Amino acid sequence: MKSNIIIADSQNLYRIGLKHVLKKHFNSLTITELSTKRELIKTLNNTEIDYLFIDVNNVIDIEKRDVLNINKLFPTCRIIIITCFHNEFEDEFLYKKEISGYICKNSQEQVFYEALIKIQRNDRYICNQILNSVLENNLVKQQNDCNHLTTREIEILKLIAQGKTGNQIASILFISVHTFRTHRKNIMKKTSANSTSKLGLYALKSSIV
């Protein structure tokens, strides 16, 4: 069965290299190359796409919400982030189920093959180079960020990340629900998180859990 693939990247030499890899893996495929958000949306609307390889730093006018919305609008399209580096714009993609894969551009061919095999089984794939980089960054952030959280606040943050409710946390720590809410409010202020789910994400990214 033929696979329809988009490579969204303004770097022509990289597109040539990725096409070479993809043609080795798929028996039959059609590849569309583009470099702007407008071209991307137009292609997705006109063709059923199986895989989207996208460098969010090299597609004109693209924003994070656009990438996440693609999965909602075109659920059969598997999104693979490709990048030379990752920053806060991309970092949150690691924790989004809408993204099927996350691969560093300088990875070996074998990494792409491993990713494609795993993604075809409906599993997520994040290359080791990205994971190691995130781990190193998070260890530094943990040292810096956790210094301004009290021991009690870190305890509460861990329990929030584990999915405990406010009542459960209050019971576990032998505090009132009102005291828990005060701590949670202070933690949100210190971490710039505006929801409980983002507190959980913060705890995960900071290796607190």
Summed up, the helix count is: 10
Q: Give the N-to-C terminal Cα separation.
A: 43 Å
Q: How would you state the average pLDDT, rounded?
A: 87
Largest sheet: 6 strands, parallel
**Which class best fits the helix and strand makeup?**
alpha/beta
**Quaternary structure state of the chains depicted:** single chain
Proportion of beta-strand residues: 5-15%
Instruction: Name the helix and strand elements from N-terminus to C-terminus, one letter apiece.
Output: EHEHEHEHEHEHHHHH
| Strand order across the largest sheet | 2-1-3-4-5-6
The geometry reads as elongated
From the alpha-carbon coordinates, what is the Rg to the nearest angstrom? 20 Å
State the share of residues found in helices, binned by percent.
40-55%
> How many beta-strand elements?
6
Residue windows where pLDDT falls under 50 for at least 5 positions: none
Kindly describe this structure:
With 209 residues, the protein is of the alpha/beta class. It has helices spanning 12-25, 37-46, 64-73, 88-91, 109-120, 128-145, 151-161, 166-173, 177-191, 196-205, and strands at 3-8, 29-34, 51-54, 78-83, 99-104, 125-126. Strands 2-1-3-4-5-6 form a 6-stranded parallel beta sheet, sandwiched between helices. The longest helix is centred in the middle third of the chain and has 18 residues, at 128-145.
Structure summary:
By secondary structure, the protein is α/β, with parallel strands linked by helices. Helices cover 54% and strands 14% of the residues. The model has no long low-confidence stretch (mean pLDDT 87).
